[in-house]
């Protein structure tokens, strides 16, 4: 010890230094954690021996651990916040980079989702700086191009086949009519000829419907003009009036003046199919309701006591009533005409009536 005397205790925050005389001789050192009564903080205690002036003393140094805990908590909090900030920044950077990296993929996906074979437009994908995406776009262009080629070939075949069938069907119909007018026919022969004539008429109607669908898909009815729908509707009602009287159908109508910018020939075909459908699938002494206003054209009729399957109703050759003489193309023609005219057809079954509503989206 310098000057052979005890040092003066230094005042240090959270630290206590004391000296106590002891009879114990020799050097010793003890380091431990203690708790002081009536104090919730823990302390670290260092005890060692020291000699001064020929007297042994027990030196005791006590330091509170509260500041150490606070420092550890602060270090943990700072470390945690730093790691969290790094993770957030990393995620944001990766998200930005990945979004930019995958942008050509999603752009190609959007172009592919808009592809329809009916549009007959070859897809064009933009060039990217990524070889994998360029390879994918090239494969998609080849696949969609092949689909368009096959569709066009099928469309041309259907159009040609439907057109060429008209002449032989007309010849067969005339021959059957001649045979049915023969004087020596038995009842069985006449019934067979009549059944064949009905089947031929059904085939002829199906052929005409297919030809009409092909013409609509080929956009051969692009000429549009202002058409008075109410006048066409009243004329069509007059045309079907005799047929409705034969079936004793009750007709109720509420027709307002409406004008649309559409193809007149397509609208006439639409009304003809709607009225034919409401008449064919009705029963004797049934009802037909016709409503035309600024927002809709609605044709509702009595008929089968069950709703039709909406999922398949407008599909080609779907015939919900197996006993029906229809060819399953009438509703498909209605939907195709509506799509080509910028209209929308909706089916509902309410109050035991089949309702076909045409939403007039392009009213003048």
How would you explain this protein's 3D organization?
This protein is of the alpha+beta class. It folds into three domains: 2-64, no CATH class; 131-217, Up-down Bundle (Methane Monooxygenase Hydroxylase, Chain G, domain 1), CATH 1.20.58; 225-359, 2-Layer Sandwich (Heat Shock Protein 90). Helices cover 48% and strands 21% of the residues. The protein has helices at 66-113, 131-180, 187-217, 229-246, 264-280, 330-340, and strands spanning 15-21, 29-35, 42-52, 55-64, 225-228, 250-255, 259-262, 287-292, 296-301, 344-350, 353-359. A hairpin with a 3-residue loop joins strand 8 (287-292) and strand 9 (296-301). Helix 2 (131-180) runs antiparallel to helix 3 and helix 4 (229-246) runs parallel beside helix 5. The longest helix has 50 residues, at 131-180. 14% of the residues are buried. The model has no long low-confidence stretch (mean pLDDT 83).
A few lines on this structure:
The chain has helices at about 65-115, 130-180, 185-215, 230-245, 265-280, 330-340, and strands at about 15-20, 30-35, 40-50, 55-65, 225-230, 250-255, 260, 285-290, 295-300, 345-350, 355-360. The chain has about 375 residues and is of the alpha+beta class.
